[in-house]
Description:
Blueprint: E1 2-5, H1 11-20, E2 24-28, H2 39-46, E3 54-59, H3 64-74, E4 78-81, H4 87-94, E5 100-105, E6 119-123, E7 147-149, H5 158-165, E8 169-172, H6 187-202
Parallel strand pairs: 1-2, 1-8, 2-3, 3-4, 4-5, 5-6, 6-7, 7-8
Helix pairs in contact: 1-6, 3-4
Amino acid sequence: MFIKICGITDESDALLAVALGADALGFVFASGSPRQVSPDDARDIVRRLPVGTQTIGVFRDERPARVVEVVQRIGLSGAQLHGREPSSEVAWVRERIPFVIQAFPIGDPALANPTAADVMLLDAPSPGSGRVFDWALAEGAPRGARILLAGGLNPDNVVEAIHRVRPWGVDVSTGVETEPGSGRKDARRLAHFIEAVRSVIDNDDDAWRPTDPPPFDWAPFGGPDD
């Protein structure tokens, strides 16, 4: 089960998340987000992370060339496209960097369309709001797709979400913050969230496993093999 902690703005939060067992960290470059960081600040944090830590840049309706430039300059593992990027732009970016997550608000008809992204992130209609969507709507995702579930997850509901949706991974930001939108992570909530997700695996519970194995191979990046 892949765990991504998004909205990282501080080095100590990043190091704590990795120490607790997070598989990837997300850095938001989208303007207007309360968790926005500059590429230079993100690079300073990334340089201090343990070797092998997966790092994802989050962009919203950014020029494809700019996405690639930032990912390569900082040395990120990949990009998350969280706007209304057309499939042609997603494919263009994916040809130039090793890993792409494409975000979809739940209920978006585009979910049914093919994508060049390695992972499909399902989010609430208002990303970063901390609001939970009706998990039953996740059934509209393509069968066998590698689904990263977001949208209002927190330490108290993530196990139920895993049982209901059976995603490949989970993505959290607001649900582990000291205050919603603060960009700073609460150590206790962060630990409880990761412990809750790992408990599903530790209990040898097959409920979380996707129906069909996804095609993406994390091995070249030293990623999770759960």
